[in-house]
Amino acid sequence: MRLATTLLAGSALALAATVGSAEAGPTLDAIKSKGFVQCGVSTGLAGFSNPDDAGTWSGLDVDVCKGVAAAVFGDANAVKFTPLTAKERFTALQSGEVDVLSRNTTWTLNRDAAMGLDFTGVTYYDGQGFMVPTSLGVKSALELDGASVCVQPGTTTELNLADYFRANNMSNEPVVIERLEEIRTAYDQGRCDVYTTDQSGLYAERTVLTDPAAHIILPEVISKEPLGPVVRHGDQEWADIVRWTLYAMLEAEEYGVNQTNVDDLKANATNPVVRRLLGTEGDMGQNLGLSPDWAFNVIKQVGNYGEIFEANLGQGTPLKIERGLNAQWKDGGLQYAMPVR
Ligand SMILES: N[C@@H](CCC(=O)N[C@@H](CS)C(=O)NCC(=O)O)C(=O)O
Questions:
Q1: What is the pTM of this model?
Q2: How far is the CA of 178 from the centre of ligand 1 (A)?
Q3: What is the pLDDT of residues 138-177, one digit of tens each?
Q4: Which end of the chain is more exposed for a tag (fewer CB within 10 A), N or C?
């Protein structure tokens, strides 16, 4: 009896020790010792993850990784990027070649539960669409019976395409091409009638066609594509860091904390939510195994969610994507940060 009590007390103590502050998981340890985050991105998708001529990456997915680097190191540039096709991406994450996959990847049951992966949140609520040359005169996806359709392998796109045509008693001829540049060229040269992918991808790809104005995106959205960062299953501490970096960016937008006012708010804010977020109150950073100013660094160096959305996808960019589902919940969208407390 006494022994049982002692054992119980012992395990309670051990539990208290683990609960008190985060133990660094193996991924964070490895990242700290190499000095940077290795981030898997696309091979080049405007607005999401795209290298310029000098090899400098930009985009919403890139900013998420920079945010994680800022949270861990206080340096948004402590990150390296690995371009991955849709087909390559999961193996690269599973094998440890990258620490996080931040690349228009849809959260599905199969990927989350059966592939050794964990989704950490949704950076962009999307849905699959179709793009066609205006000259085809097609106004609805329901007119696409018999069309040849360009699609990338290893994607939910491929699966939804088959579902949609089957459900509507239509047939199509898939033209399956792995590399983004090749599929874009194939569509641009008329080797398929239709290009299908996430609507965000269609907006992005349209900007780099020979004549963007000669193509329309059809009104039908045939699937749900919640896109977000993915980590390996089994290292919860690392998953928490990626997840809460995203929530910090979202909560910053919700509470009006941005790159411009974050210094002032760190010094003067009285709102307890803002003070906790910026590390002037509470021990949020410690809970994650990070410094108290982890979220301050994310916002100061990278921006809040609204800022990175506008900078990469918004009205001042060639993509001109509306916030839509990606507006804050208070504005009728789906973006909702869990409370940083
Ligand atoms: N969200 C879908 C599709 C993702 C996807 O890979 N889309 C293509 C077309 S936009 C892409 O990003 N390709 C970029 C590349 O291959 O580098 C999924 O997770 O399966």
A1: 0.93
A2: 10
A3: 999 999 999 999 999 999 999 999 999 999 999 999 999 9
A4: N
